[in-house]
Specification:
globular, 9 strands, alpha+beta, 5 helices, binds zinc ion
Length: 217
């Protein structure tokens, strides 16, 4: 464990968030991962993240570890960081995130699979869009980028970093047939954004299943 004195508080927030996402049905079969950026005085620890292969329904504080800015574990006591740690790191580096939450919900997997060639899922006309920071009307069009899935995390994180660098504001993206990444300036904003996207993806899924376009333009 890192020397950072408030690490346990951060770890507890991550445990609560991971268990909540599990209860919502967004984290089947040990999937999904969650992290919080640590303050500069925690260096070389850079962020706290859930360990790999942990059931998020029964996750505990002991399953949270610190990694440095390259994703290397710091005094991890047998824990392995999530395989997708590099994607979390790029969002801290590139998008100014303070917390990153990644889920494997059915709606995210399904809609990103359907939209894999289009490269985006567009969300418009929904009242809950106002849950995203800086949005104060339903009358807006938000594009959720869809990137091809890959097991090569280095190549995938480079690709996503380049693609997101000119997207502002942006609080989420999808990996095709895989799941959703959502983030915010801190964990409460990230949770709100995650809940907004999951709800709206479910709305889009219902619209799609009833024979309309995935986009509501
Ligand atoms: Zn994943």
């Amino acid at each position: 464990m890192t020397h950072y004195p408030d690490f346990k508080i951060v770890a507890e927030q991550l445990v609560q968030t991971a268990q909540w996402a599990s209860r919502m049905g967004w984290a089947p079969a040990t999937s999904s991962n969650y992290s919080v950026r640590l303050p500069d005085d925690a260096a070389p620890a850079y962020c706290a993240i859930t360990g790999s292969g942990i059931d998020k329904g029964t996750i505990e504080v002991e399953h949270i570890l610190a990694v440095d800015q390259y994703g290397k574990p710091i005094d991890a006591e047998g824990l392995k960081p999530s395989a997708e740690t590099l994607l979390h790191l790029l969002l801290y580096r590139t998008m100014g995130a303070g917390a990153v939450l990644h889920t494997h919900s059915l709606s995210a997997a399904l809609l990103s699979h359907v939209a894999r060639n289009e490269g985006q899922v567009q969300l418009s006309g929904w009242e809950l869009l106002k849950g995203l920071s800086g949005i104060d009307t339903h009358d807006v069009e938000i594009s959720l980028p869809v990137f091809p899935n890959s097991q090569d995390m280095q190549a995938l994180s480079t690709h996503v970093e380049q693609a997101l660098s000119n997207q502002r504001p942006c609080y989420g993206f999808l990996l095709a047939g895989h799941g959703l990444y959502a983030w915010g300036k801190d964990i409460s904003e990230a949770k709100r954004h995650l809940e907004v996207f999951e709800y709206l993806l479910q709305c889009q899924r219902e619209v799609t299943q009833h024979g309309h376009s995935a986009n509501t333009r």
